[in-house]
Design brief:
This protein is of the alpha+beta class and 119 residues long. Helix content is 26%, strand content 21%. A hairpin with a 7-residue loop joins strand 2 (30-34) and strand 3 (42-48). Helix 2 (55-61) crosses helix 3.
């Protein structure tokens, strides 16, 4: 159920501490940690503590938490020293877009040139 921890969700297990992660920031509503398969020198995931399957469902149910994720993404960029050179925030939604963990999350990417269009 949305908002409730899911026993089979990797990110819910990271939030609970059941699975370790390299956490770089935490707030009351979010957790930010390094991606285990980085696609750029800076690749940090920012997730809500609450379980929602994707960004759209999170926005519909908890718009303030989605705003918290974006604020934290900006702070990650500052902390990682990519805010001045540029960074990208990506929400993949659905398997066709490359989403593999169905817990809403933002990718913060930086530290190299990021071409457009992506993919």
């Amino acid at each position: 159920m949305a908002g409730e921890p899911q026993p089979d969700c990797l990110f819910c297990k990271i939030v609970s501490g059941e699975i370790p992660a390299t956490i770089v920031r935490e707030t009351e509503t979010t957790v930010a940690f390094r991606d285990i398969n980085p696609q750029a020198p800076t690749h940090v995931l920012v997730i809500p503590r609450l379980h929602h399957p994707d960004a759209a469902s999170l926005a519909a149910a908890e718009p303030q938490v989605l705003a918290d994720i974006l604020r934290e993404a900006g702070q990650v960029a500052v902390d990682e020293k990519v805010a001045d050179t540029g960074y990208r925030v990506v929400f993949n939604t659905g398997t066709g877009a490359g989403q593999t963990v169905f817990h809403a999350h933002a990718h913060v990417l930086g530290g190299r040139g990021l071409q457009w269009p992506p993919g």
